[in-house]
Amino acid sequence: MEKIPGWVEKIFTPKVNELIGEVKGLNTKLDSLRNEMLARFEAVDVKISSLRNETKSDIESLRKETKSDIESLRKEMLTKFEATDAKLESLRNEMVSRFEAVDARFEAVDSRFGSLEARIPVMEKIAELEVRLAEIEKKLSMRA
Predict the structure, then answer these.
(1) Which residues lie below 8 Å from residue 1, measured CB to CB, with a gap of 6+?
(2) I need a labelling partner for 30 at 20 to 30 A (CA). Which of 13, 23, 72, 101 fits?
């Protein structure tokens, strides 16, 4: 600096000092803005973390409710299916019982027809005998 002429030093030193002051002021403002931005980012991080935790809690609650609802519906459907199965089993038993009764009636009718079939030859013979008897009575009444 010894080589710098004094008049240059007198002219530029105040300006340099002024610029240094402005740079220090800008640095202070930048530090303040940086701190403010960091504070805001931290606040946003806290809000995001809070929302994330709230969302997780809501999702877990929905899972529990949904699981409970599904389980309840499953039990209700099982109960209804069991009731339906019981009704169908009862109807099946009733139908089997009715078919067995119809079968028994058919067997009785078949038995009666069998009995009639056995009687028909006897009845035919009786009819033949009656015809012969009538002929004999006729012949006897003619001879007398």
Answers:
(1) 9
(2) 13
Domain ranges of the chain: 1-103
Q: Write the DSSP string, the chain.
A: -TTS-HHHHHHHHHHHHHHHHHHHHHHHHHHHHHHHHHHHHHHHHHHHHHHHHHHHHHHHHHHHHHHHHHHHHHHHHHHHHHHHHHHHHHHHHHHHHHHHHHHHHHHHHHHHHHHHHHHHHHHHHHHHHHHHHHHHHHHHHHH-
Model pTM above 0.70: no
Q: What angle do CA 33, 37, 39 make, to 5 degrees?
A: 115
Token pair listed for 17: 């000092």
What confidence tens digit (pLDDT) does each residue in 32-55 have?
999 999 999 999 999 999 999 999
